Amino acid sequence: xxxxxxxxxxxxxxxxxxxxxxxxxxxxxxxxxxxxxxxxxxxxxxxxxxxxxxxxxxxxxxxxxxxxxxxxxxxxxxxxxxxxxxxxxxxxxxxxxxxxxxxxxxxxxxxxxxxxxxxxxxxxxxxxxxxxxxxxxxxxxxxxxxxxxxxxxxxxxxxxxxxxxxxxxxxxxxxxxxxxxxxxxxxxxxxxxxxxxxxxxxxxxxxxxxxxxxxxxxxxxxxxxxxxxxxxxxxxxxxxxxxxxxxxxxxxxxxxxxxxxxxxxxxxxxxxxxxxxxxxxxxxxxxxxxxxxxxxxxxxxxxxxxxxxxxxxxxxxxxxxxxxxxxxxxxxxxxxxxxxxxxxxxxxxxxxxxxxxxxxxxxxxxxxxxxxxxxxxxxxxxxxxxxxxxxxxxxxxxxxxxxxxxxxxxxxxxxxxxxxxxxxxxxxxxxxxxxxxxxxxxxxxxxxxxxxxxxxxxxxxxxxxxxxxxxxxxxxxxxxxxxxxxxxxxxxxxxxxxxxxxxxxxxxxxxxxxxxxxxxxxxxxxxxxxxxxxxxxxxxxxxxxxxxxxxxxxxxxxxxxxxxxxxxxxxxxxxxxxxxxxxxxxxxxxxxxxxxxxxxxxxxxxxxxxxxxxxxxxxxxxxxxxxxxxxxxxxxxxxxxxxxxxxxxxxxxxxxxxxxxxxxxxxxxxxxxxxxxxxxxxxxxxxxxxxxxxxxxxxxxxxxxxxxxxxxxxxxxxxxxxxxxxxxxxxxxxxxxxxxxxxxxxxxxxxxxxxxxxxxxxxxxxxxxxxxxxxxxxxxxxxxxxxxxxxxxxxxxxxxxxxxxxxxxxxxxxxxxxxxxxxxxxxxxxxxxxxxxxxxxxxxxxxxxxxxxxxxxxxxxxxxxxxxxxxxxxxxxxxxxxxxxxxxxxxxxxxxxxxxxxxxxxxxxxxxxxxxxxxxxxxxxxxxxxxxxxxxxxxxxxxxxxxxxxxxxxxxxxxxxxxxxxxxxxxxxxxxxxxxxxxxxxxxxxxxxxxxxxxxxxxxxxxxxxxxxxxxxxxxxxxxxxxxxxxxxxxxxxxxxxxxxxxxxxxxxxxxxxxxxxxxxxxxxxxxxxxxxxxxxxxxxxxxxxxxxxxxxxxxxxxxxxxxxxxxxxxxxxxxxxxxxxxxxxxxxxxxxxxxxxxxxxxxxxxxxxxxxxxxxxxxxxxxxxxxxxxxxxxxxxxxxxxxxxxxxxxxxxxxxxxxxxxxxxxxxxxxxxxxxxxxxxxxxxxxxxxxxxxxxxxxxxxxxxxxxxxxxxxxxxxxxxxxxxxxxxxxxxxxxxxxxxxxxxxxxxxxxxxxxxxxxxx
Length: 1307
Description:
The chain is an alpha+beta fold. A hairpin with a 2-residue loop joins strand 31 (912-915) and strand 32.
């Protein structure tokens, strides 16, 4: 009996398709070692173990392979599997990958050699060691190793040995050097200066003055003519470009103590010294880093090249190393210093030393800038094995197991089904592809059944393709928040205290990995042009998504030491590498168990420090992110009194945190007084720098506390945006969390003020996303219109503001208006951080969206470039564009004043002016646009409707009316409708499209052609076929073709023409199962839908003949225009109602759809109005005829002797609505009530049974067809086919002529 073998791990076929070959080779080698270890030698058993151990996937694949061999042939089974998993290698590509390999930073030489050897296995090199050695020489990171290898003839073994020696010696030398560097940092020697040597900076005498005020306090300087000091101590002498040495008595310092320093300053310009480049003020300066220096030094040669920096006198004494003579210090200044290496900055003091010996950065400044650090030697973190083990956690989109999110919808909230926002035809294909992709990813599904909640979508461009965004603002008002707590800064400090290694994992499309419960999906329903969809996963637009996802991920990570999450970001930390790796492995294991995946491109691993939740975590502890104050520190000085007031407004906002605020700000405040002369000197600059430094201190800047109420204060100026994040304390105070500002792009600077402030709101919210997302907060602005625009979800705005509204919907915020010129964000917006200027290549997402809408809505008949060029040369529109940007409507003239009533709807984008989403056409293109709209020769009303869907300009209605009246073909083909006397009986709108049809013929035309016209009574959509004959056999194939395209209707309404009374047509109706209704004979208005279309159709054909065009070709132009034009009754175009889409036309169009309920209401309203008008115009009244009355029948006029009525009385036998059937002894007649004249009841009528009912066959070219009111037919005057008494049919008596080409044919 065979021994029981331990299980062997199966082979994962789909773990990584790119590496399946090498993985199979490795697995097979381990499997054969497994067989050898357990002494399995029987081929049959080996083959069985191979297929069993490899797993079910491999066994299924093996069953499909050819040449499997017999059960005893183990080698053939291995050969077949090798052929499948190890296809032929592309040698050229493998060599390319080998040649492009380089040694990574921190990678040991042995590790790099091992990686190269793995790559070389598939390259089939003749001498593998020689190729690896050559590639190491070329691509290694050590220049010493490369020089040695090029100098001496070394093999691979010797090269690796020498490289290991270099790495070991470098490591040991670094340890010794770090020890020596630490030993050099010693306490500085100081030399105290007693208060007896202190001088007053106003008078130059000893300070303090004993028992009396300073004598220079009210005196005027004879040098600079300013009050408050003597000329002997005037500091304006030091502001010249050349720096002079300051005398002993020229000090402005009145502190109790002063220090001198001993530093190393010699050989600063020696290239062997540790030099770095920093930015001081606005100038790049090369400096020496000296860990033993206590001050920063700038020589006068460098200082003279700086601008806008003012020097102050000082009594500091600076000594060189081992020198008893002080250096020639001429003064000090404070400035902002930034390192281009670490991107950190601070405000530091510099001593200016006479000469050009070089510049120096001391220990404190170098440490704060991150240029000087005490580094502990730690082995390089290795997480490759962990990443390889959990590679499946970084592939595809996951879905959390056994977890579904529930949205709590307020049952008392009124559902809202919003209108579908029409999409440009050019992007519909992309939208369909994106919807298909989301369906395949199982993120969305089609919505079935009742959908009380419907949200619109907005299509937004991205780098590759588009993104579909759902506007959930209205639906979010009904979703109740869960208020799950978010970890605070204090929690993170406790957890991360003492950690030295960090990693951050970003979940791939985080929210889409959490499934929604079935009953929570309805509120996410959104409308597209191909139907309704809803989300199956949690989506970004839901206001409660943040806390739901936070809670779910916390549950996943519960019990894992060294891991915390903020929404979809997971931070992993450890006190050492071992603890970190254990925590990382535990997190990835939890992700695998819960089927979660991460985005590898957004993850960070094995970091010595990390920025998280707005703070910087490292081995040194926690510190605030420098970006929180960068905008304040980089702000430039005021240039006039207005800007000075704005800066003081910002500083006053924080005055309670700043000690001695009044005295520090006094020099700047004096410049804001009325009639004060603007002179910005060193005293003002010192106060400005000091205030900025105080406002960035920990006493002012506070940590963010999620439990406090948060406010974001924003403002915008013509040059920049500003934002201040604040929190309200329990005692009513205010904590400053962060400052932010940025300059506007060239395009953004041309926004209107409303759009600029709206951009400031969105930018500020998104800039502080980490603080604000998932919480409730307020946005404070001094721009009143934004309060309505952002707080009202159904508010209509410009295309640019619409996009901004959409970007705000993930946040639970309220925009609040607070008036006042003391907005603390005002100064930030007028002095934006130059380091955050937006470069032209970073186009605003808002502008990208507006350009996307304009470009895709612009058909080829009028190009976007033509609109731009014409707008640029239109003086009125250029003035209008400037007013939209500046908002100075009070200064406009008459040409622009006509736009003032719609100013809230106007915007400018990419050289085009929009009213909402409609293009304002420049003057020289307006006539052309109207001609395009009138190309189908539609009437005034339809032409106006067609134009208003996509364009607008002042006086558009009047220009259309004049254009149509002056159109010669229209005037030649048009005629007025004749009034009728019978009251109209309106038919109800069918239940849906293509259920009831009206059909008639148009013709014959001079070439003996006819038109078969079929109209859908619901949508008014026409189908027109050209015929050579009106017989039933000719008509039926064309109807069959139409029904094949559109479907079989329920009812077909026709007149009583010969083809419709034929037996063939009755059989055709029976076969297809539709009801054939014939209208009252000689009463064409009962088939009003088809008859009214005849008049419009005949006009189009006549105008084509007048213009010398082919009427057959122009017929298609007419149909295209007619189907795309909103109908006057329904308010929708026929194509929209029948097919759910609007046909593309030659006009630019940005359209919005109407709900079907509104269509039905509009139809009923218009029909009622038309009925009232027609009945009133014709003085119509209901007939008083009834069954049994004696009547005379109206007859056509034959000659002068003809009477209006036949003198043969008849008696009414039947009445259905206005259709009356009367008879006498000779005949039975069915006519409309208006054909009969009532007689006294005493008139005798002889009645006999009638064997035949007379039916008139009306002429196809009936003159009354043109007199039918537009779009109507009577509801209850149809003649139903009665199978029990079929009437005798009259056949056509028309004589058919033999075609000319058959005249010689002999039968």
